[in-house]
């Protein structure tokens, strides 16, 4: 490109101004320098062959690194011996668009364990491999286990949505680079239960399942319906649990126009391996709800279907429920109606716009209101999110039997009765995370790419109402048979952009893994 060799300045390059000026007249230089206004500390001004005058500050324009005040900068102010710095990243590809969030910082993400129990503790490892204290003491009446929820980013979805990852170096996006990193994280944290989302079917069969089985996991997998290439997996340690039942949930129902999406859920019933005759079972659910921010009606219906299956699986003979862990990518933000419904167990959706359900979009202009009821009766799920039998109204027999037309009229009258606009579920669920940093109040995020950085991933667990109402950071007492012992801290958007967002050289998904340790009271 230039007649003289470029001189390297770290990852950037320099060239004599006279060569750069000659090159600029033949090619718009904005294709090889960052765009103006797209980088808060851009080390060079914006050049254009159409207009060269610009008020700017070029703090690192010259090799000497001399600082300049704002000035009316023109190319004729530069001598022929001046050197211009070019970004090696932008020079790699004409198709890469510069990102305002691109950083030159490198390194690993620092995440710490947050302990919610102050009794005697056992050893765990942090991200740097150091031994740290993490959990409460064990005895024969307690069973401790850890859970990881992780959206590992399907390779096909990554490639279909490549515009979300323009901030990434291309090599870090290859599956051959990403999978070893993901497996390294899983091995490092060594969770007893894994709930994975966006698990691509071919990768699951060829690499993911064999690798996890070699680590002592039993794996169950449910692929999305239709032609979707990914699904959800729940994997658990042979040494910790026995499998009682596997219950997949398909959210697509061809007989119901509302339910035309291919998302799925997976519910397992596990038995802890403990040296006693009888122990309570554990229900573990995993899902990935619809992304579309403007289809809150579908999201709520998918959630209701998952809750109905959990209710069926976790139900005990005495009418109570065994402890529940519900993980996944819910594509809803903290404080949204869908999130509040999970935590509070009730939702009045009358007058609620479908685009407001998940909280992913702020404006609801032009959006219709949720219908009452949201889903049709033939789905077989009540407003309490449990399965119900399809019932025909009972009619007292008389001397003259009712005609078929009269029966049909009776059914119509019953269905025409006003349906309440309230959803409910029977579980007391709490989130492992508080979603805001206690010191600064900044929001935690679980996913971060070129277009957004928000929380959409959760680990919910059985909780008593009085404990669920406690403030974040408070010690959690016995919660429906489960006690939260520790959680791996989350980060802010600013934290993640110091390592160039997600994915990066060390974190190979656009989501962070969530990790918590629980105690099951026996």
UniProtKB/TrEMBL annotation:
<dbReference type="InterPro" id="IPR050410">
    <property type="entry name" value="CCR4/nocturin_mRNA_transcr"/>
</dbReference>
<dbReference type="GO" id="GO:0003730">
    <property type="term" value="F:mRNA 3'-UTR binding"/>
</dbReference>
<feature type="domain" description="Endonuclease/exonuclease/phosphatase">
    <location>
        <begin position="148"/>
        <end position="472"/>
    </location>
</feature>
<dbReference type="Pfam" id="PF03372">
    <property type="entry name" value="Exo_endo_phos"/>
</dbReference>
<dbReference type="GO" id="GO:0090616">
    <property type="term" value="P:mitochondrial mRNA 3'-end processing"/>
</dbReference>
<dbReference type="InterPro" id="IPR036691">
    <property type="entry name" value="Endo/exonu/phosph_ase_sf"/>
</dbReference>
<dbReference type="GO" id="GO:0070935">
    <property type="term" value="P:3'-UTR-mediated mRNA stabilization"/>
</dbReference>
<dbReference type="GO" id="GO:0000175">
    <property type="term" value="F:3'-5'-RNA exonuclease activity"/>
</dbReference>
<dbReference type="InterPro" id="IPR045816">
    <property type="entry name" value="ANGEL2_N"/>
</dbReference>
<dbReference type="GO" id="GO:0045930">
    <property type="term" value="P:negative regulation of mitotic cell cycle"/>
</dbReference>
<dbReference type="Pfam" id="PF19339">
    <property type="entry name" value="ANGEL2_N"/>
</dbReference>
<protein>
    <submittedName>
        <fullName>Angel homolog 2</fullName>
    </submittedName>
</protein>
<feature type="domain" description="Protein angel homolog 2 N-terminal">
    <location>
        <begin position="1"/>
        <end position="107"/>
    </location>
</feature>
<dbReference type="GO" id="GO:0005759">
    <property type="term" value="C:mitochondrial matrix"/>
</dbReference>
<dbReference type="InterPro" id="IPR005135">
    <property type="entry name" value="Endo/exonuclease/phosphatase"/>
</dbReference>
<dbReference type="GO" id="GO:0015030">
    <property type="term" value="C:Cajal body"/>
</dbReference>
């Amino acid at each position: 490109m230039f007649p003289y060799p470029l001189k390297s300045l770290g990852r950037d390059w320099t060239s004599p101004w006279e060569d750069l000026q000659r090159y600029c007249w033949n090619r718009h230089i904005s294709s090889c320098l960052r765009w103006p206004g797209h980088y808060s500390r851009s080390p060079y001004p914006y050049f254009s062959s159409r207009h060269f005058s610009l008020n700017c500050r070029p703090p690192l324009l010259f090799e000497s690194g001399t600082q300049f005040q704002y000035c009316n900068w023109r190319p004729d102010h530069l001598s022929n011996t001046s050197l211009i710095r070019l970004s090696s990243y932008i020079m790699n590809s004409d198709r890469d668009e510069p990102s305002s969030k691109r950083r030159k910082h490198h390194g690993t993400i620092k995440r710490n364990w947050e302990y919610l129990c102050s009794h005697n503790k056992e050893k765990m490892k942090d991200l740097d491999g150091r031994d740290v204290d993490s959990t409460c003491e064990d005895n024969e009446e307690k069973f401790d286990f850890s859970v990881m929820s992780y959206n590992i980013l399907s390779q096909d979805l990554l490639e279909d949505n490549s515009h979300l990852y323009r901030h990434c170096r291309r090599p870090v996006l290859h599956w051959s680079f990403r999978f070893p990193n993901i497996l390294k994280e899983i091995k490092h944290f060594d969770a007893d239960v894994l709930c994975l989302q966006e698990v691509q079917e071919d990768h699951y069969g060829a690499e993911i399942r064999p690798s996890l089985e070699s680590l002592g996991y039993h794996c169950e997998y449910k692929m999305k319906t239709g032609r979707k290439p990914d699904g959800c997996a729940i994997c658990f340690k042979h040494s910790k649990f026995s499998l009682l039942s596997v219950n997949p949930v398909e959210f697509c129902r061809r007989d119901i126009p509302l339910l035309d999406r291919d998302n799925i859920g997976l519910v397992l019933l596990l038995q802890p391996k403990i040296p006693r005759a009888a122990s309570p079972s554990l229900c573990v659910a995993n899902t990935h709800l619809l992304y579309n921010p403007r289809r809150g009606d579908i999201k709520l219906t998918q959630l209701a279907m998952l809750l109905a299956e959990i209710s069926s699986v976790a139900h005990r003979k005495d009418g109570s429920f065994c402890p529940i862990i519900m993980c996944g990518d819910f594509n809803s933000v903290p404080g949204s109606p869908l999130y509040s419904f999970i935590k509070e167990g009730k939702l009045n959706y009358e007058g609620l716009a479908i685009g407001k359900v998940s909280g992913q979009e702020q404006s609801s202009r032009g959006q219709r209101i949720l219908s009452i009821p949201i889903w049709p009766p033939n789905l077989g799920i009540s407003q309490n999110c449990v399965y119900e039998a399809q019932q025909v109204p009972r009619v007292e027999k008389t001397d003259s039997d009712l005609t078929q037309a009269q029966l049909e009229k009776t059914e119509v009258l019953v269905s025409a009765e006003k349906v309440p606009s309230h959803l409910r579920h029977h579980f007391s669920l709490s989130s492992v995370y508080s979603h805001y940093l206690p010191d600064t109040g900044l929001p935690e995020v679980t996913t971060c790419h070129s277009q957004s950085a928000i929380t959409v991933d959760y680990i919910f667990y059985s909780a008593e109402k009085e404990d669920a109402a406690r403030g974040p950071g408070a010690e959690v007492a016995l919660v429906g048979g489960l006690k939260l012992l520790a959680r791996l801290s989350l980060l802010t958007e600013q934290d993640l952009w110091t390592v160039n967002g997600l994915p990066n050289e060390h974190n190979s998904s656009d989501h962070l893994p969530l990790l918590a340790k629980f105690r099951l009271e026996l």
